[in-house]
Each structure stands twice: as C-alpha cells, then as structure tokens.
Amino acid sequence: MSATADRIQNEVERAIQRSIKGLEYFSSPAPVVGHTPKDVVFERGTLHLYHYRPVADEIYRIPILIVMATSNRGYILDLAPGQSFVEYMIGRGYDVYLIDWSPPTAADSELRFEDYTLRFIPECVQRVRDDSGESDVTVIGYCMGGVLSVMWAALHPDDQPANLVCFTTPIDFSRMELFAKWSDRRYFDVDKLVDSTGNVPSELIFTGFEMLRPATRIAGQITLWENMWDESFVRSFRAFERWSTDTLPLAGQYFRETIKELIWENRLHKNELVIGGRRADLRSITAPLLHAMAEHDHIVPYAAAKPLIDHVGSADKEEIVLKGGHVSLVAGPNAVKRLWPRLDAWLGVRSV
Amino acid sequence: MADKDKDPLASWRDLLSQWEQNVNAIANRTMGSDEYSSSMNGAMGATLKMQETMRQFMAAYLATANLPSRTEVLGIAERIGGVEARLDRIAVLLERIAAKEPGQATAPPAVSRPRPPRTKSPPSTEPSA
Q1: What domain range is B83 assigned to?
Q2: Mutate to test the interface with A, among B22, B26, B120, B121 (most CBs of A within 10 A)
C-alpha cells in the first residue's frame, strides 16, 4: 500500500517537474556541442582539419585521422562531456585529428569523388604527418566518410594507412533498399535535380533520412515529454536532436556520382569504380581493417556494409556487429559501453 | 519483471514502441513501391520546375529594381572565398619555405604547443609499477 502511495507521489512530482522543465526547455538556448579543445590545422573551402589537444601524459605513436560523413556535422563525435568519442579517445592516449565539412558553396558544386579521395584526404594525411612528425596515420571513416576513406585507401596501394577503421560503411549499395528505390533511374532525374539546384539542399537530405523512420520523430517527442523531469536525458536528447536536424547540403557533382556510380551501377561493390582515371580496387587495401556495424542500422543495413571485409586484401581484418543503430553505434551512452572500448582494445596494440 | 509490473508507465512505453515499429514498417512497405517512387519523384520534378520559374521571375524583378540577385551575391562570396583559398596556399608555401631554412628539419606543427611524448603502450603491454 505504502509502495503504491510512493509511486503515485513520485509520478505527481515528475508531472510537476515536466511542466516546469518543459517551460525551461522551450525558453533555453540550443545545447553547446563540440566542447573538446581543438586547433585548426588546415582549411580549404568545405574542408576543415582539426587537431584535438592531447590530455594524456604520453600518447600512442600513431595519430588518428577521422573522416566525417559529408552529410552531417562532425560534432556527433564530440557531443557532450562523457558522451564524446573524441574526448574518450584523447583520454585513452590517442592523438586525434578530424576532417569536418561545412556546407559547400556554389563554387564547391563541381566537387567530385576525385576531389575528396585524390586531393582532400591525401592532403590531410600529409598535414597530419607534418603536424605530428609521424609517417604512419590511422584513418577512421564514419558512414560516407568511411566510403571516401575506403576509396582513398583503394586508390593508394603504395601509401596505405597504418590502420583503417570503418564505422557503418556501405559497400553494396543495392542493399540500401529504400534509398535505391527512391533513386530508381526510371523515375529519379538526378541530372535535373543537380542542374537546377547546384548543390543538393540539406532539406532534401534531411527528409531522406527522416522518411526511413517516419514515426520515430513523433515517438521521440513523446518520450522526451515523458522524461522531461530528467535533466540528463533532456540534455542528451537535445544534443542529438540538434545534430540530426543539422544536415549538410551535398556538392552537386558528388551527389550525382553517388547516385549514378554507387547506387545505380554499384561500382564500388563490383570493383569497377574509376576515379581520376584510376580504378578503386578494394583488393588493393592491405592495411589492418576493423569494420564496426550496428544491428539495427536503418540507414546502412548490415547487408550493405558486410561485403567490405570480404573485398579487401588485408590479412589482418575484423568485423564487429554491435547492438544499436546508425548513430547510437558511435555516439551516446551505449557507444560509451560498446563500441569505444572495443575500438580501443583493437587499435591500442596497433598504434605503437 | 517485478519492477516493470510496478511501473504504471511501462505498458504505455511498450505500446508506444510497438506503435512506432508498426508505423515504420507499414510506411517502409508503402514507400518501397514503384508507385510511391514514381509519385515522389514526379512531385519533386514539379517543385523544381516551380522553383526555376520563380527564380527567373525574381531575377527579372531584381534587375528592374537595379538590385543584385542571389546568384550575383553568391558570385562575390565565391570570389572572396577564392582569395582566402589563395592566401591559404601562400601560407602553405611560406611554411614549406620556412621549413627549408637552416635549423628547421621538418615543417613546424600548425599550432606550436607542447606535445606529450609518443611513447604510450597498450595497457596489457605496459610494464607493471
């Protein structure tokens, strides 16, 4: 009887807190993200290369270069204290650099795979070498950042990364079924879209992601209201919400190539992708490879990501499939317990 | 299980989760059809056409009012971006020239700040204290 009374009292208190904090929620500014101290190493147009200041007394010999997905902001990897991948890695003794992207301007609409894989990433790798004084560099790519990293590594058989780590990286684009359906060449005129918009608007990219799970946003708002009394939940929810709506436009030519070369022709999977006159043969990748995927990834399903391990020529390669979704794999409270320690265990012994 | 039984909102949460999964599954089935793809892309084509017409209309209006169009403003922004990019390249060249000066073995780090030594070993191979 007393337990029931306690529960009722608890629920009443929560209901009051919901109302008070609900008002605060609507009147407070957006949450601060990307708090880990960093320095700009290099910038060119849409590209920004950051170096996070080390905090450990000694660091691993081999620095890490993270390549962020082109459609989203890099602060998902530095969301909030205690939920920051970057903060975790520098705390574990890694020297971390990150390639982040800003919205492409009209002048960037001509950027293509060639620019990202033969110009941007090689230039940043060299910058990391110069800045760190180390010739070996580990490259970590997230989603399309992983695709670009894989293309870059395949195009540079004589200049491999010390290690290559991919998070939810699609290779077989025919298995990204809804995206493939929506961009069906019988109905989708990608040339008309790119020719009339220049860069593909962020609203279109955002809507594409949202349509994969149309009920999730509504369910999320209801869950937010239910947990409005819990400050840490609200803080985390707002940071994720801010990031998920902060989608980037995509450079027009780059989008056109993604649709035609990857989704329509599936050339990366078929080892037929030619960039700047060179074939991106996945068998040319010989660096130690770790591919982390999520069990419930609705953006890059397991079937789309799985072929990477089979295709590369690396002798030292491993895939891990963890609970979670496309974003919760790399960020948030679950990533703290699942992916990050697994990555640390795999990478630490390969970073000396 | 006992905790779940006591929580009055547990059933509501289960119901919400079930609803979310069902709606997503139904929507995915609908959106995975040829008909949906065809109509979605048809609507997008119509929107693009409308935007193009509006753009032409606005460009004509702004020209009449002797005001710069968005394209022209973006053109100026691009040229400023181009100047900044060229300055970046000049800065890189200067860094490389500085690195070749006597006493500079390699290019200096982008930011001069004391760096910890690169001597860390993974925990299992670290010597015990």
Answers
A1: 68-107
A2: B120
